[in-house]
Every structure is written in structure tokens, then in C-alpha cells.
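Quiz preparation item.
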């Protein structure tokens, strides 16, 4: 795939093609949106967007205490409405239904999931696929992610690297899970400004996938990272999905 064909995916982006879809490990839902959202999940996206807006307002509002408490009461009413509805996976649900549920795994990501209100607004594009896969991500962190004054908290920078490099290694066609992540912070990473993350696969040695990445604000290098991923057997990924769904139904 050329850079002109970059495909976005993420909280604010569209659904990308499945990187490495012809690879031996068929669990593309781990790092890509493997199909359209259901009507219920689309409604969750709309709700999550409003919750994100609420989070931004909680951090920055100068409203008086009475107005803040009125907003709290509205939120509480919404929570009570949802609490009264069913949750989790019903006992005896079919394997096919569990597979369908797993297709929107990316949308639930705590880093860029469109239906997860704690997700940062990270949008990733695949530039190249295969052994030397490369991805690019753009994000503007709000004040909710502030650490040092005016700067993105370093933990969120590291989390973004984990996601970006995770998508890069997934695009290699032999995806796995993080074994090691190392971040070097080079200069302050500003909030309220667009940042550009880049991640790529340096080499693959058996099950080991070595990756590297950078984040820039304009021409300024803010941080760089290296990560090691271990490719995962399909049966292990299926076991993890089963464990998650069993936990949700208990």
C-alpha cells in the first residue's frame, strides 16, 4: 500500500482495511475494525462523543457549583436508565454470536475506540503493510490529558506509542502482543496542538516483531520509542476472547 492509499482507523476515523488479512494468524479484529458497527454500537458512539465533551467541560468549566450539580443529576439519570437494561453476554450464547461480538473489538479500545469515552482521539493510517509495515497517527490531546503544565502526561504518550506500534506490528501480517515498550522523552509534548506519531516494523525474527516509533509537534521530536511484540497463536486469542465474554456474563 502506498502512502497515497493510507487508510484511517480510530476514534474519529473510518474503518480501515484489515492489515495482513491473508496472514496465518486470523484475528484481525485485534487491531482493526473488522466490520460495520451495529445500530446499538453506533448509538454508543454518539453517547461516547457526548461523554468526551462532558469530560472536557468538567476539566475546564467555570460554572457555579449549583450548575455543576445539575449537570451531575442529568448524568446520573442517564446512568440509571442504562443500569436498568441487560448487561454482558447471556448464558448459552452461541459461538457465532461471540465471534460477531469480537468484530468490534477495536471500537472498544481504551486508546482509540469510537464507543469508549475514555479513549483519546487517536486516528491511525496504515502507510505500508507487510514485513516493513508503517503507520501514521494524528492526535490533539485536550486538557484532560495534561500532566506537567501545558504538556501531555507521559503515561498517555507511552500508551499512544503502544497503540501505534501495535497497529504497525499488526500490519506486518503476523500480529501479537506487547512484550516490552521503552520510551525516551526528548522535549515537552504539548496539549491542544496536533501531534504526529509514526511507527514501523524494523525486523521480524520468528515470533519476535521489533518496532520503532516517533512523535513530533511540527518539526520538534517530542519522544521516540521501541517495542517488542510476540506474535500470538490464533487459539490463544480465541481463549482471551472467551475469557472476556465469560467474565461479562457473570
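Solution:
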Amino acid at each position: 500500500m502506498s502512502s497515497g492509499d493510507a487508510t484511517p482507523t480510530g476514534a474519529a476515523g473510518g474503518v480501515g482495511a484489515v492489515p495482513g488479512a491473508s496472514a496465518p494468524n486470523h484475528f484481525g479484529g485485534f487491531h482493526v475494525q473488522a466490520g460495520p458497527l451495529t445500530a446499538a454500537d453506533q448509538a454508543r458512539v454518539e453517547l461516547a462523543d457526548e461523554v468526551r465533551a462532558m469530560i472536557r467541560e468538567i476539566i475546564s468549566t467555570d460554572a457555579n457549583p449549583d450548575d455543576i450539580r445539575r449537570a451531575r443529576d442529568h448524568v446520573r439519570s442517564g446512568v440509571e436508565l442504562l443500569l436498568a437494561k441487560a448487561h454482558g453476554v447471556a448464558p448459552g450464547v452461541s459461538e457465532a454470536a461471540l465471534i460477531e461480538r469480537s468484530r468490534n473489538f477495536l471500537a472498544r479500545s481504551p486508546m482509540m475506540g469510537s464507543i469508549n469515552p475514555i479513549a483519546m482521539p487517536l486516528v491511525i493510517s496504515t502507510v505500508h503493510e507487510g514485513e516493513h509495515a508503517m503507520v501514521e497517527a494524528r492526535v490533539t490531546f485536550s486538557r484532560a490529558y495534561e500532566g506537567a503544565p501545558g504538556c501531555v502526561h507521559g503515561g498517555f504518550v507511552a500508551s499512544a506509542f503502544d497503540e501505534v506500534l501495535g497497529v504497525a506490528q499488526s500490519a506486518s501480517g503476523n500480529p501479537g502482543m506487547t512484550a516490552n515498550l521503552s520510551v525516551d522523552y526528548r522535549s515537552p509534548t504539548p496539549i491542544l496542538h496536533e501531534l504526529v506519531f509514526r511507527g514501523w516494523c524494523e525486523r521480524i525474527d520468528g515470533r519476535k516483531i521489533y518496532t520503532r516509533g516517533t512523535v513530533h509537534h511540527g518539526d520538534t521530536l517530542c519522544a521516540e520509542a521501541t517495542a517488542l511484540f510476540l506474535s500470538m497463536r490464533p487459539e490463544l486469542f480465541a481463549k482471551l476472547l472467551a475469557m472476556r465474554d465469560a467474565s461479562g456474563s457473570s
